[in-house]
UniProtKB/TrEMBL annotation:
This is Transcriptional regulator. The keyword DNA-binding applies. One of its GO terms (molecular function) is DNA-binding transcription factor activity. The keyword DNA-binding applies. One of its GO terms (cellular component) is cytosol. PROSITE patterns: HTH_RRF2_1, HTH_RRF2_2. InterPro entries: ArsR-like_HTH, TR_Rrf2-type_CS, Tscrpt_reg_Rrf2, WH-like_DNA-bd_sf, WH_DNA-bd_sf. Pfam families: Rrf2. Keywords: DNA-binding.
Length: 129
């Protein structure tokens, strides 16, 4: 399974907001420069994070993006779902529905992975170990 490059950028942008500027807005241009990505492309990811309620946009000359929720409340899964959506990564092509044993194994693995990502907060990796 593979997450998109957009998810990679969103996770790194959130890490930057949490570790470098938890209480002040950061411009899309500064974030884009730090990540080495186009501001236009990054802006699309940030818009999804705003819609998910993870960050908010601060208008004005000194505006930008900052956390909307406490960093301890933002999980990896929150960020991934904001970018990728919540659809399952596997669907049985043979239309067996809930009777498909293969689909049940894959869905069980997916649930376990989601539980792990739900319990890992973005702030976990900003703290010294």
């Amino acid at each position: 399974m593979k997450y998109s490059q957009a998810t990679d950028y969103a996770l790194h942008a959130m890490l930057h907001l949490v570790s470098e500027a938890p209480d002040k807005p950061v411009s899309v241009h500064l974030l884009a420069e730090k990540l080495g990505v186009s501001p236009t492309y990054l802006s699309k990811m940030l818009t999804k994070l705003v819609k998910a309620g993870l960050i908010h946009s601060v208008p004005g000359a000194n505006g930008g993006y900052r956390l909307r929720r406490s960093q301890e409340d933002i999980s990896f899964l929150d960020i991934i779902h904001a970018i990728e959506g919540t659809a399952s990564v596997f669907e049985c092509s043979l239309n067996h529905g809930s009777e498909c044993q293969i689909q049940q194994v894959v869905l069980d693995a997916e649930r376990q992975m989601e539980e792990y990502l739900r319990n890992r907060k973005i702030s976990d990796i900003t703290r010294p170990s």
